[in-house]
Write a structure and sequence with these properties.
Elements lengths: L1 H27 L6 E3 L3 E4 L2 E4 L4 E4 L5 H4 L5 E2 L2 H5 L11 E5 L2 E4 L19 E6 L3 E5 L7 E5 L2 E2 L2 E2 L3 E7 L4 E9 L25 E6 L4 E9 L13 E4 L2 E4 L8 E4 L2 E4 L13 E4 L2 E4 L3 E6 L5 E9 L3 E7 L8 E8 L2 E2 L10 E3 L10 E4 L2 E4 L1 H5 L11 H11 L9 E5 L15 E6 L3 E3 L10
Length: 452
């Protein structure tokens, strides 16, 4: 009997230990294996990250009971947002976010979202914070998802927008921002978190408003269809290795898109661009449009460099369907299905091919047998912003070549743009302004011109 009882006890102990191991492994299935939570700190990729007043950990798998045990630990973006403090450029307010799907707006709430009194846009979450950083704890942006699923007339009255972030220096990395009103949410790490779209009817479902300068997103996905809105309203903005899915009126018109990919499902992804406009550098654009693809519905400048289009049913790419006579757009090395093209062939006067022109250096130059995408020239402003860390390369190239690569203007504006004159009777004064990217005016520039 003693032997049998001992055998039973040992068997039970062994089974309990196995269950513990199995439970632990199952719990980790939805987390990055390189992430370990230790209560007052996390370990990510072998690096210890202390939690504190400007360093929060967010994990959607934690229960409310678990999060209350630890300071600076939350299980939702919404709860964490209540405790933010302003960061600085050197020490941003950082949200370290574990893999999960974080619903910014409750998708199961039947209540229709409406704008606040005196406003026109219903919002999921409003945040006021200087130098706020969203840091996903996975190399795969699709593992960390901030989600909503409402749009105009479908769950909302007005163009529902998931986030309104007020403050300088918003930063995002390894994150997906998604409005799943018109697209399915597919979450490979845990299919139980998948969710079907609300409707096949494409309506305005927006992502992020931003009023700040120095906005930077890296390896971030912006998923919606109509009016995607990736940091709409921001000033100097850089997207590095990001992915966008959209239809019309969707992209950020004051941004530099570097090494980005796009899925475009209709003919005009920009409603308009503003000031010095938008720039594509080494991007891949997959167009699902039939026959004609344009960049802009309204007005505003666009530059495209080393950008590749792929499409099955496309026979024309233009800047704008009916461009202004005075408008000029700039391109270099553009292809459609691996064949070189000139954008806006039907309106050839609008396109300036930068091949062999000095203006190309403002966006791209070659140094030491390597291509340098000149984000420093484009984004440095008056405060030396250098998000890609290429200033030393630019300075070295300037020193060795004797050329200017850091203060090259990208826009010449002449006003008035249209005027009717009668010979011998009327006159007009033309005023020219020369701007660096980001709407910084260069004073006292020599402008050479002639009248045809």
């Amino acid at each position: 009997m003693k032997i049998a009882f001992r055998t039973i006890v040992l068997t039970i102990s062994f089974l309990l230990s196995c269950f513990s191991v199995l439970f632990s492994q199952e719990h980790k299935l939805n987390l990055n294996k390189e992430l370990v939570f230790k209560g007052n700190h996390i370990i990510y990729k072998g690096k210890k990250i202390e939690l504190g007043s400007n360093s929060f950990f967010i994990d959607g798998q934690l229960t409310n009971e678990e999060t209350t045990k630890y300071k600076y630990v939350y299980n939702s973006i919404n709860e964490a947002s209540k405790h933010l403090i302003n960061g600085t450029e050197a020490s941003p307010m950082t949200l370290y976010i574990a893999p999960w799907v974080y619903w910014i707006d409750n998708p199961d709430d039947p209540e229709i979202r409406v704008p606040k009194v005196g406003e026109t846009t219903p919002l999921g979450l409003e945040i006021s914070c200087e130098w706020l950083r969203f840091q996903g704890l996975s190399d795969e942006a699709q593992d960390v998802v901030l989600a909503c699923n409402r749009g105009q007339t479908i769950g909302a009255k007005g163009n529902f927008t998931m986030l309104n972030i007020k403050g300088e220096g918003v930063n995002a990395e390894n994150i997906t921002f998604g409005n799943y009103c018109n697209i399915d949410l597919i979450y490979p790490l845990n299919p139980k978190l998948n969710r079907q779209k609300r409707s096949s009817a494409i309506v305005q479902g927006q992502l992020i408003f931003s009023n700040g300068d120095k906005v930077f997103a890296r390896n971030t996905r912006f998923m919606s269809r109509l009016n995607t809105g990736p940091f709409w309203g921001s000033k100097r903005t850089l997207f590095d290795r990001c992915h966008f899915e959209s239809t019309d009126d969707a992209l950020n018109g004051t941004a530099v898109y570097l090494n980005c990919t796009f899925g475009i499902y209709s003919s005009k992804p920009f409603g308009h661009t503003s000031g010095t406009g938008a720039v594509f550098l080494n991007c891949d654009i997959q167009s699902f449009t039939r026959e004609k693809q344009y960049f802009v519905k309204g007005s505003g400048p666009v530059v495209a460099i080393d950008t590749r289009f792929t499409a099955q049913n496309l026979d024309y790419i233009g800047w704008r369907e009916i461009p202004d006579i005075e408008a000029r757009y700039y391109q270099y090395n553009i292809s459609l299905n691996n064949k070189p093209i000139k954008i806006s062939n039907n309106n050839p006067y609008t396109t300036v091919d930068m091949t062999g022109k000095t203006i190309l250096d403002a966006y791209r130059f070659e140094f030491n047998n390597a291509v340098v995408y000149n984000t420093y020239n484009l984004l440095t402003g008056n405060d030396d912003w250098d998000p890609m860390g290429i200033k030393t390369v630019v300075e070295k190239a300037e020193k060795e070549t004797g050329k200017n690569y850091s203060t090259i203007p990208t826009q010449l504006m002449v006003k008035p743009t249209r005027q009717t004159l009668e010979t011998g009777r009327d006159n007009v004064t033309l005023e020219a302004s020369v701007n660096r990217f980001g709407n910084y005016t260069l004073r006292y520039q020599k402008v050479t011109w002639k009248i045809s």
